[in-house]
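Question: what's this shape?

___
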Amino acid sequence: MRDVIIIGGGLAGLINAIQLSKSGLNVLLIERHEYPFHRVCGEYISQETLPFLADIGIRPLELGAVAIDRFQLTSISGRSVQVSLDMGGFGFSRYAFDHLLYEKALSHDCSFALGTRVEKVAYRAGTSTFQVHTDKGAVWEAKIVIGAYGKRSKLDKTLERSFITERSPYIGVKYHVKMKHDDDLVALHNFEGGYCGVSNIEGGRTNVCYLSHRDNLRKYGNVPDMERTVVRRNPFLRKIFDEAEFLFEKPLVINEISFAPKSPVEQHLLMCGDAAGMITPLCGNGMAMAIHSAKLLSEQVLRFFRDPAFDRNALEEAHRSQLTRKFATRLSTGRRIQSLFGSRWLSDTVVNVAKMSKPMARYLIGRTHGEAFRENGSYHGAENLR
């Protein structure tokens, strides 16, 4: 019997693991990969997370992460605008970041079952506990189960989640490259049916990660042909694909990326991060929301174990209302802005409007970022977040 089982070892799962295990709970995290490993991800993270990360002993900017405070937007035809970022962010690979958090969780005596996939989760009302079944034949029991397994999983089908019956029209493709790109700049380059984020990460590398409508892949048959005929029509992207040194043997590709709203509680499982819909189609701010949502959920779970009056129903309702209060506006803003990308006419229009009114552009970008937060309460410091 465990106090908490966490399914999925991305940012949300690992933050929950750190917070709960260091508070004395018996925590098991189940992850289907072995650390370290790469993920399809924009790898730009809002600086709102830095005070919290420092509080738990993680300082990315001291470990090679790259501080970013400028944003560039380009249209399919090659028009471009740059604006400053009031909050800013940092570039840090998930390969390094996830492994760092994994080691931190280990230091707090969190247990891990790596290379393991969860097949089924069953809540038993009589005992108010869960049984978690894995592909290795193991069955674990826990009082609380947190789902932090990402955007889309076979487990979603088992749980019969409402969004899983609808096909998602997006694929994601990621590379690490060597190229000339300003450290302080995150760029978002439009192409027909998609857009590509570019920002530097640790080790003098650059992350190139794009989202494309699957019709592009269906039309051209494979990723290289799609890139040659669609992605490279933007001259900024053409320059990257012509001149950069690509470091992966082949691209990392993920299918069925879903931006659909998702319920934060499913059959008493507490969903967190992307599994709770904490993904926004803009430059990696979904990572900041995953970290923040995990911090908030951990606080509620600890209250459940410490306060007899705070029962499961109260825990689930608190989790639902907290995610809505903290992130609903931010997520809806991101979805609206996404609709302006991936079209030749719209991308030209957005760039032109941004050039004419940079304060408005900065305001909209700010709506996709949150406020800085700490491990205990909000962050009100005036000092530089770096």
Residues 378-386 have pLDDT under 50 and may be disordered. The longest strand covers residues 80-91. The CA atoms of residues 51 and 167 lie 38 Å apart.
